[in-house]
Amino acid sequence: MLPQTPPMAEGDLAQTPYAHLAVYLLDRRLTGELFLTAAEDVVHAIRFERGVPVKIRMGDSYARIGELLVEDGLVSAETVEGAALTGGLLGDVLVLAGYVESAALNAVLDRQFRLRMQHVFELPPETPYQYFDNAETLKDYGGEPACVDPFELLWQGVRAHGELSAFFAPTLDRLGALDLKLHPQALLSRFGFEEDAQLLAEVLALEPTPISGLLDIEGVSPDIVNKFVYALAITRQLDLGRGALPVGLEPASPSAAPARSLAKVQLRSQVHRRGAALDAPGDGERSMRRLSVRGMAVIPREEDAPETVPVSESVSPSEISPATRPSATDVTAESISSDLDFGAAEKEERAPSSVEPAPSSPKVSTPRTPARPDPTLPSASDAPPSIPPPFTAEETPTPAEESSRRLVADTIRLMSVDALMKLAREKIDEKEATMAAEACEVALKKLTDEGQVPSTIHIEVSCLSAWARSLEPHPDLKALAVELDDIIREGDDVAMPRLVRGLLRSRLGNEAGATTDFRRVLEIEPRHELAQRELRGLESRTVKRGETGFLKRLFRR
Q: What pTM was estimated for this model as a whole?
């Protein structure tokens, strides 16, 4: 479903290949959504955040997660079909049911995202596209945003299908006779080159080399050479004497007037901005968000840097307005690689832009002057720590989180009691008290409905529930211990009640009672590892305290 607002730019991939669109959005760090209509009822959508692709929704069945899981041998096709009947996120269902480990699922999700992004590069040239700036139709779609370096995605797409770009051959023709020289600030490490492409990068780093020289390198196919050069050209990683910075590298912001020195006398600038701070150390790259399990985190935070508007050479800073902002439909091989001289005649014959940017007021960032501290008031370090409210606006769950929450609840209800006990124990080990307690609650209800009360399994689930609740913030450990006292009075032939009560007693400081409980657990289950470990810890602490006592050392003499 397309956004209701007019598109910021539209065209087709013959006019602007996807590789050039991706570079344009990354170069200007735009946030919005790109829709590509591959067929009448097949619309692919990609969400960009600050120019980085983070989500993709395919209009067809290309690279479905279930097929990839079966292909990797992680689950069977029957398991996928059964999990799909729940109507939720397939990966979450399979993880909660214990069929797939989280790490394995994340690896498959990463591969799915890369495959789908790579597929976009092979769409036919007549595919129309529409870009909607600041659209959010995909913001809550699927799971977490992907965290893959956009240069890596670009190279993978170009390596697989770069020859399908309408500007692939023209770009190579313009560069054919030139000695290719890497830009001093080229970001080649972000492309994730394979061994053959990395060899080309190392050769260019040594000395300028024409395409013909790269073609003579053994072990690298001509196809890879051409695609390598094309990728570097459209991302401005080559220094062609135009002074343009590589895509992904921001120009250094003009600083205040520098201090001048003469002999040993320091002459400082008379200009002082009240409240100004030193520039943050670093190489100019914005801070990264979210170290995900899915690869490098390269999505910059919106609030980490002020909004910048690209300034062309023909427009002064005072003349910048929303109307002069370049549009995506102006992105052709000439406009993206402006340092390539494609000829003035070709530029004049280019079709006019069909962009109709929506009017918007420019953002003005006003520095805030910090208030001077009042010496009569206590400092922040002297004040008692404030207690955060139990629920703040920042913690309000998003619609995606609410949907995932409902899905998890529905999935738990479909699990067997044995699976619920296994899930509860795993979550207890991971200190996820809420999920463990919910799993126990559902299991207890199932056992009650099935008439298995009282029973050994009901006792074990009740103890797991008490254990899970003891891990919640500010638990009433004494009340939980009383619950276990009642269970043990009814029967002392099950290890779980003694184990959990021993853990609670240890936390309450009743080490003698905890020792008794753990010894009873070992009488019931002699090889119980957790009870053995806890008992060794208690006994070692008792011995150490006894040996360091003054009276004991005195009488020993």
A: 0.52
